[in-house]
Design goal:
- This protein has a domain of 146 residues: NADH Oxidase (3-Layer(aba) Sandwich), CATH 3.40.109.
- With 250 residues, it is an alpha+beta fold.
- It has a 4-stranded antiparallel beta sheet with strand order 1-2-4-3, with helices on both faces.
- The protein is globular and about 60 Å long.
- The protein contains 10 helices and 4 strands, in the order αααβααβαααβαβα.
- α3 packs antiparallel against α8.
Length: 250
């Protein structure tokens, strides 16, 4: 995945000769097995139930417990190298949402949904961001920092080599979209409606939310809440091409 996202990868940074396994595996832990699967039909029913909600019931709010789960699904989303080059802004302030709406094609979801998430990707990467992540790995896994030198060199070569800076915003945006998919699937399983929103003016969002000064840029948004009984799209048939047209075996 990393090679596809960041081609061509520059491995010119010298790596330790023993750095064959870039991310050390903690062999002291017992191997964990999956013991909490759900029936396939339950997942598919949830995915068939979800749709791009056009009209939210502004009177219905997501409970704190449910929101914490949705928030954790964002935190647990996979990302390239595990670096999480994004931030998720939960816009609660109704005044701020009102400011954002005119720059969102006046879509009502921005102001009517229970929760509104703006996903922002990093516009640049530095050694500090990479090293901060490695510090976190050491803290969580309890492994020596020196055991990560090979992995550090690989990230430096891919993300910090000459010319890489031009690719960072797009790379970070792709990681945010992975998180968006994770969030929307989790929401469907919890019976929460969503609508991904790309129809907005990023520059205006960035200015209102002060993202540029923080080194981020808005990428995509997601409104979450509960569908209005008046939303005609809720009962519309889901239109998809047959699997045979979309999925190919090689």
């Amino acid at each position: 995945m990393v090679e596809f996202l960041l081609n061509p990868i520059n491995y010119s940074v010298a790596l330790p000769k023993k750095a064959i396994r870039y991310f050390p595996i903690d062999t002291t832990r017992e191997k964990q097995t999956m013991s909490h699967t759900i029936p396939e039909t339950q997942l598919l029913n949830a995915l068939n139930w979800r749709y791009a909600t056009k009209t939210f019931d502004a009177s219905r709010k997501i409970s704190d417990t449910t929101w914490k789960t949705l928030e954790e699904s964002l935190v647990l989303s996979p990302s390239s190298f595990g670096l999480q080059p994004y931030r998720f802004l939960i816009v609660k302030d109704s005044a701020v949402r009102a400011q954002l709406q005119p720059h969102s094609w006046n879509q009502t979801q921005v102001v009517d949904a229970s929760h509104y998430v703006v996903m922002a990707g990093r516009t640049a990467m530095t050694e500090a961001e990479v090293d901060r992540f490695l510090d976190r790995v050491v803290e969580v896994r309890g492994i020596p920092r020196e055991s990560l030198e090979g992995y550090r060199g690989m990230m430096y070569g891919s993300l910090l080599s000459p010319g890489a800076e031009a690719r960072i915003p797009h790379w970070a945006a792709l990681q945010a979209y992975i998180a968006l998919g994770n969030l929307m699937t989790t929401a469907a399983l919890l019976g929460v409606d969503t609508c991904a929103i790309e129809g907005f003016a990023p520059a205006e969002y960035d200015a209102i939310l002060g993202l540029k000064e923080q080194g981020y840029a808005s990428v995509v948004c997601c409104a979450l809440g509960y569908r209005s009984p008046d939303d005609k799209y809720a009962t519309a048939a889901k239109v998809r091409f047959p699997a045979a047209d979309l999925v190919k075996t090689v």
